[in-house]
UniProtKB/TrEMBL annotation:
One of its GO terms (molecular function) is protein domain specific binding. This is Putative cation-dependent mannose-6-phosphate receptor. Keywords: Disulfide bond, Glycoprotein, Membrane, Receptor, Signal, Transmembrane, Transmembrane helix, Transport. InterPro entries: Man-6-P_rcpt, Man-6-P_rcpt_cation_dep, Man6P_isomerase_rcpt-bd_dom_sf, MRH_dom. Coiled coil: none annotated. One of its GO terms (biological process) is protein targeting to lysosome. SUPFAM superfamilies: Mannose 6-phosphate receptor domain. It comes from the Eukaryota. Its main location: membrane. Residues 1-26 form the signal peptide. Residues 263-282 are annotated as: Disordered. Residues 263-273 have a biased composition (Basic and acidic residues). It comes from Rhipicephalus microplus (Cattle tick).
Length: 282
């Protein structure tokens, strides 16, 4: 009897899960593209993956008085009672407030390029006496901002009185749509040249300081002799000039004629009698 009751409870639990699972899935919809075969739109939609499920809210004030409140979800519903609603407008009246649907998630189109993506929700509530009684639609552009991930929602055009546009346009700043090169450039540290300069001056400074202390304290040198390897640095210019003359000017054959010094073996020999005369005492 006990085993039968356990089995019955398990069956009831499975039935409940099977019944409510579609409801749970229906309450968490995503964006449904109008052009389902568009590979470019699918790629743009995949690029917004880190923002999916996020909702944004912005207030519209006129003369410091609240007139409208807009809610937009990135492939997420902003109305629990209507899972397909992607954007709504709360019109704040003096006596009565009104909620207007601006766009549906199941009518999504995308357009974009490196650094920005424009998302459009269509099939909102129809206008009454304006815009040819067409359905409302909302657009929000996600633009690259390396310093922001979630970002904030800003109003670009709300279609209110005095504006001729029939489309609601918003802007969201986020690092999600930043290209890889810009993102790496922003987070990149010191360049190779800067690292080389730092290492060079560090090594050169250490060489001069430690060499100076050694020559001063250990060797007891004074004056210019305190410079490390002073004789080498003194002749460095002449050595470079000789190397440049040998490699670049190709004057190695006639170098003996123009040298300012001569070896002992290079001097012309005197006649034998002259050398013998030098040995005689005067």
């Amino acid at each position: 009897m006990f085993s039968r009751s356990v089995n019955n409870e398990c069956l009831r639990f499975l039935l409940v899960v099977c019944v409510f699972l579609p409801c749970i899935a229906a309450e968490t919809p995503g964006c449904t593209l109008v052009n389902k075969d568009s590979k470019s739109e699918k790629a743009l939609l995949e690029g917004l993956h880190d923002l999916k499920g996020e909702t944004f809210t912005v207030e519209d004030r006129v003369d410091s008085k609240l007139k409208n409140v807009y809610e937009i979800g990135v492939c997420a519903s902003v109305n629990k009672s209507a899972p397909q609603v992607g954007a709504i407008q709360h019109v704040i009246g003096e006596k009565v407030n009104q909620t207007v649907v601006l766009g549906q998630l199941n009518s999504t189109t995308l357009l974009g390029a490196p650094g920005w993506t424009l998302v459009t929700y269509r099939n909102g509530d129809r206008y009454n006496g304006s815009c040819n009684n067409s359905s409302r639609e909302v657009q929000f552009a996600v633009i690259c901002s390396p310093n922001e991930h979630h970002g904030t929602l800003h109003i670009a055009s709300s279609g209110r009185a005095g504006e001729t546009a029939c489309t609601f346009l918003f802007v969201i700043s986020s690092s999600v749509v930043c290209t890889k090169e810009k993102h790496e450039q922003h987070h990149r540290g010191l360049s190779g040249g800067a690292v080389f300069c730092i290492l060079f001056f560090t090594v050169a400074g250490s060489y001069l300081l430690l060499g100076f202390l050694y020559k001063r304290i250990v060797v007891g040198a004074k004056g210019l002799e305190q410079i490390p390897n002073y004789s080498f640095w003194k002749d460095c210019g002449n050595l470079q000039a000789d190397g440049c003359n040998y490699i670049c000017r190709c004057q190695c054959d006639s170098a003996d004629e123009h040298r300012s010094y001569r070896d002992i073996d290079d001097r012309p020999l005197r006649p034998d009698e002259d050398r013998d005369d030098q040995l005689l005492t005067m």
